[in-house]
Amino acid sequence: MAVRNDDELDQPHRWYSTNLVGIPAPVLASTAFNANPVALAIAGTRESHAGLFALLNRSGDLNEARDMFVHYLAIGFGLRKPESHELAGLGAAEQRRWRSSWRKLLQGWGMDANGQAGAVLKGWVESRFGLVPIFHKAPLARFPSETWIGYMQEKAASRFNNNNIYQQLDLLFEFSQWALCSFQPLGRSPDSRHLQLWRGSNQVEEQLIAGRLKDRRCTIRLNNIVSLSLSAEEASCFGDWVIEVQIPICKVMVFPGLLPGQVLQGEQEVLALGGNYDVLARYG
């Protein structure tokens, strides 16, 4: 991470870091990119797992594809529960070993986006897309600070950051992008580049960077990864202000129906990359 001078130390969105998608982070975070997005791919992920995506391309529907995906990750990252005869050959410490998984991480995010799981997800976005988080428990402003140190400790903590969790998340992102392009879920048309989503919040004024809320149309800065809802009604449960956002398809990581079982807390919850967005806001 590099910082250019002292007057920018309290503006994390102006920091930059390398990424693995080939688009500079300031461009990726901009309203111009979000209005006119292009496809994103994490370098080397599909190439390193070509067999998985060859199988996915032969699947008949999303249900079949997600079963293939989950099975592949279970084998590749040792996520399945060992059989009793397999446990007998393991030491006591190995039997108790916590293996972090994409599912545990997403469930942790659903419980508390500002907990350890949330820090790991934000750190993954920072690493892969170069988007620096702006909030974790409190605004991530001047560096160094207690808030920044706390975030950095949590994103490196071994409870969730083990078992090649970043590589698991790389595959999850690529699987989401493949599914969105292959099956057009959520009722989107094949030529659509955006999803219309909503987010409820009581801190919209803190995220405002242009315009006025009372004029309804304004520009806000979202954290590097955020949860959004498929409906305004669902979003209104999370705050007095409800913002309508056009999220690029290429920034969607998890959407309802992508994965089996209960993953995120909300049934209509979408997990997507943040940045600067032109939005439509309403109160109440």
Structural features, described:
The protein is an alpha+beta fold and 284 residues long. The chain has 13 helices and eight strands. It has helices at 25-28, 31-35, 45-48, 50-56, 62-76, 84-87, 92-96, 102-111, 116-129, 146-156, 165-183, 204-207, 232-235, and strands at 135-136, 138-139, 194-201, 208-211, 217-229, 241-248, 252-254, 269-283. It has two domains: 6-183, no CATH class; 194-283, no CATH class.
Q: Count every helix, treating DSSP H or I runs of 4 or more residues as helices.
A: 13
First CA to last CA: what distance? 39 Å
Name the helicity range.
Answer: 25-40%
Give the total of beta strands: 8
* Secondary-structure-derived class: alpha+beta
How many domains? The number is 2
Radius of gyration: 19 Å
The proportion of strand residues reads 15-25%
Shape: globular
Order of helices and strands: HHHHHHHHHEEHHEHEEHEEE
Major sheet characteristics: 6 strands, antiparallel
Mean pLDDT across all residues, rounded?
89
Sequence stretches where pLDDT stays below 50 over 5 or more residues: 1-6
